[in-house]
Amino acid sequence: MSTPDSGHVPTLHLTEPTVLVTFSGPDRSGVSGRVFSALAAHDVEVIDVEQLVVRGRLVLSVLVTTPGELPGFQSDLDAVGADLGLEVEVVHGTGDNRPRRVGRSQVVVLGAPLRPEAMAALTKGINALGGNIDRIVRMARYPVTAIRMEVSGADPDALQSELASIAHDHGTDVAVQEHGILRHAQRLVVMDVDSTLIQGEVIEMLAAHAGCEEAVAEVTERAMRGELDFAESLHERVAQLQGVPAAALDEVYENLSYTPGARTMIRTLKRLGYRFALVSGGFTQIIERIAADLGIDYFAANDLEVVDGALTGRVLGRVVDRAGKAEALRDFAAQAGINVRNTVAIGDGANDLDMLAAAGLGIAFNAKPLVRDQAQTSVNVPYLDAIVYLMGITREEVEAADAADVTTAP
């Protein structure tokens, strides 16, 4: 007999007879136990199991090798179904339920609300690319609906490109990740700050103290759309802050608002050993305090020069620009000992594009059209914790972990 370490694993030949048993009807406690107890009375091997419960309705399918005595097998299963009030279907065939095809991907759809016409268009798009949907699971019901589809037979890159266009047309978001062992490894999440982790732009809040908020906001908007070089635009905007008291930095920090779901996302992923980094075109005097508040592992930002208690209108050192953000992502990954392929980058502006491209998963969060169109994945719901659904974590798991923390707190 082969052992798990013997190097040989017995396989079921595709032409060998099998039986697919499906129970469907009202869900109740103990169904699986009764079904497998009935199967245990016959000399069969379990090959595959699928179970789904939606609004109290159960579908349980078990694929087994063909038993030696079929009439008794059918009779025992019918008796279980009758006792539990379930319909029973027994289908005879050959082999496994087919080998998994190449090109396996996880497709997550986010909608608020999620409309059936969007799901129809996305599933047709998967089919048009030669894909087959092997499994569909709900990840969350609120504050957004998140559905995960496991797809085989289609190229992940082609899926991402085609489905992103379809999702945009239907006002939904979609993320495609290739299945593989790296999906389960520790990850590094690198985030932009202004208009991503926090609501609004710090430089515009500072500009309000100098009476030039409108002019600075116009330059910021053009830079985020990619119309201006970021470093040049930063120097231009910071110059207008000359003379602003340094105490304004404290006031701005105290009045910051995190994006809804930010703390939930960070808390949830840090439970799983994820590392976090902030890479910002903003200012160290603000970013380091945010990092301390949220337990962020790394950060990179720009240093405002302060002399005699006031801003000079100058930035010290090299500006953290578009290229600098991508460089920081790689540096932080190296410090954390995490493969760059296992990094997640989240941003909204044109200066985030190189960082999003460098990451294993680049997510445009409520981004400008230029960024949304070029990013691997786009999330346009206003909740940052929607990111955890892309990581394969359900809303129920998040809430259960939070509840456990409350019950175990001293």
Automatic annotation (TrEMBL):
Residue positions of the active site: 192, 194
Segments forming a coiled coil: none
Keywords: Amino-acid biosynthesis, Hydrolase, Magnesium, Metal-binding, Serine biosynthesis
Reactions the enzyme catalyzes: O-phospho-D-serine + H2O = D-serine + phosphate; O-phospho-L-serine + H2O = L-serine + phosphate
EC number: 3.1.3.3
UniProt domain ACT: residue ranges: 20-91
Biological or metabolic pathway of the protein: Amino-acid biosynthesis; L-serine biosynthesis; L-serine from 3-phospho-D-glycerate: step 3/3
GO cellular component terms attached to this protein's record: cytoplasm
InterPro entries: ACT-like_dom_sf (IPR045865), ACT_dom (IPR002912), HAD-like_SerB (IPR050582), HAD-like_sf (IPR036412), HAD_sf (IPR023214), PSP (IPR004469), PSP_ACT (IPR049148)
Single GO biological process annotation from the record: L-serine biosynthetic process
Presence of the UniProt keyword Nucleus in the record: no
Presence of keyword Metal-binding: yes
Cofactors (names): Mg(2+)
Gene3D superfamilies: 3.30.70.260, HAD superfamily/HAD-like (3.40.50.1000)
Entry's Gene Ontology molecular function annotations: L-phosphoserine phosphatase activity; magnesium ion binding
Record-linked CDD domains: HAD_PSP
Family: Belongs to the HAD-like hydrolase superfamily. SerB family.
Protein name listed in UniProt: phosphoserine phosphatase
